[in-house]
Description:
The complex is a heterodimer of chains A (284) and B (290).
Chain A (H helix, E strand, L loop, with lengths): L5 H7 L5 E11 L4 E12 L4 E5 L6 H8 L7 E6 L2 E2 L8 E3 L11 H10 L5 H14 L15 H13 L5 E5 L7 H15 L5 E6 L2 H7 L2 E5 L6 E6 L14 H16 L14 H5 L1
Parallel strand pairs in A: 3-8, 3-9, 6-7, 7-8
Antiparallel strand pairs in A: 1-2, 1-4, 4-5, 9-10
Helix pairs in contact in A: 3-4, 3-5, 5-6, 7-8
Chain B lengths: L17 H11 L8 H24 L10 H10 L1 H35 L1 H16 L2 H12 L4 H23 L4 H9 L4 H38 L5 H10 L3 H29 L1 H10 L3
Amino acid sequence: MSSPSIGQYDEKTVDPFIRVRDLSKSFRAKTTITHALDSTSFDLQQGEFLSVVGPSGCGKSTLLMLVSGLTSPTTGTVEIGGRQVTSPISDVGIAFQEDLLLEWHSTLDNILMQGAFRGVSKRSLRDRATELLDMVGLAEFADKYPHELSGGMRQRASICRALVHKPPLLLMDEPFGALDAMTRDQMALDIQDLLAGTNTTVLFITHSIAEAVMLSDRVLVFGPPPGNIVDELVVDLPRPRHLSVRETPEFAAFSGRIRSRLEAMGVIRDRTAWASGTASAERN
Amino acid sequence: MTEIIKPTEPGSTSGPVPARRQRMEQIKSPRDLWLWPREFGLYMLPVVMLLLVWEAATHVFGIQRFLLPRPGDVLSTLWEKREILLDESWVTFQESLLGFLLAVAVAVPVAVLLTFSKIAARTIYPVLVISQVIPKVAVAPLLVVWMGFGVAPKILLAFLVAFFPIVVNTATGLNNLEPKMIHLARSMGASTWQTFVYFRLPSSLPIFFAGLKVGVTFAVIGALVGEFVGAGSGLGHLTVIAMGSLNTELVFASIIVMAAIGVAMYVAIEILERLLVPWSRSRRLEQMGG
């Protein structure tokens, strides 16, 4: 499998939903300039689930902020639906690593909050909100307050909030980052359920190779900072994917390729190369 | 004093977070807005102990009454002089309350200004800090000279003392919002104003109330300082007169009433907080590991 170059990919796509070109972002402190993202270009088709995997500080989160228009790029452009992003977009749902639920609203009201500034009445969103809560097993917690929920439940509510207004674009920045392994597995399945049958385009930022392969149609691998795309792979595993897909050779091939790419970049260091793959876990 | 979590019947705590839910139910119950009899007993225990030791000491060491009156005598003075004590406390209470309300009314807009304007923050903060470090006791006689023996200088002193903690806490509270929360609000299409009203303001309430609690007790002290310096009425005035005639029982009695006013105003704020910001208390209990 040879990795397709970005240029190759461009020729194949016509009218992408999101077009990112030469995007870079530098942060200026008093005396130093940090290059968070370095001249990145890619496309995102309507309804596609794209993951970005990479080490800490590689500009993954910056990329998400730039796509949402919440920060402006140093150079380059983001176009969504043919229009350049110059200010924060609101036709979007965002889920961060922190659930960011408002403590003073019930779970349901937190989700309905999404409509508050869009001129959408609570009533029209209520059915959809209840349906989403039901799908992630939170139906009976609709009237509970966030501090009555566990971390995983809170994050599920936060993802429901990001989807309740049926946004064409869903941005997620390590939404499972603060959760335990089993809850993460459940969340991955929940996300897949929530998106099944919709045409939602997803940009998913993660540290987890397995999650990226499990959920995505396509994965972008970012190298160490300043971040840039070092590899791109199309994950054509059949859907719906069950957790058992992770034990298949195909899955192992995808995650193995991402892992070796990150190792080659020096992101993951394996000092016992003779037992590559398992040694780093056994060493400790 | 941490809340004691009542064990509930087995099987009644379904769900993944029984401890938290249990605590929440307890907080929501209306009787929790008031002190439980059992807890009240715990609060009063040291007070009763102190009174007993005090009473015993005056007998054992034969301390003269004008130096240290007996608790029994103080309590009977409280009862005998109840009318004058009530009248004077009403004055002190009004001065404290007006000064406190004035402090809130001025502090909140100033805190909003501090949050939104860097220029305002730079120019106002030094003035605030200087106004705080100037001892109010030293300023009090001046205020009486300028404004007379009426209630005005007392209200002003209560205001001056209460203002600082309220403005600092309110400003801290308003800056308490996570940057990502602002991102979220913007992605929802909220304007700056809507972000302020729906996100920033509510999230500032726990710290705002912490400021109110400090401020309200300070306000009482401020009013009393004004009365000590020069007044025709109020508990401070009564204390000065009682001291002049070595009526130590009455001095102690009015001190007790002063404390009672402060406690009452503090409790009123606390009840208001539990009604308006129920999530603040539960979070605090969590941090305490309760």
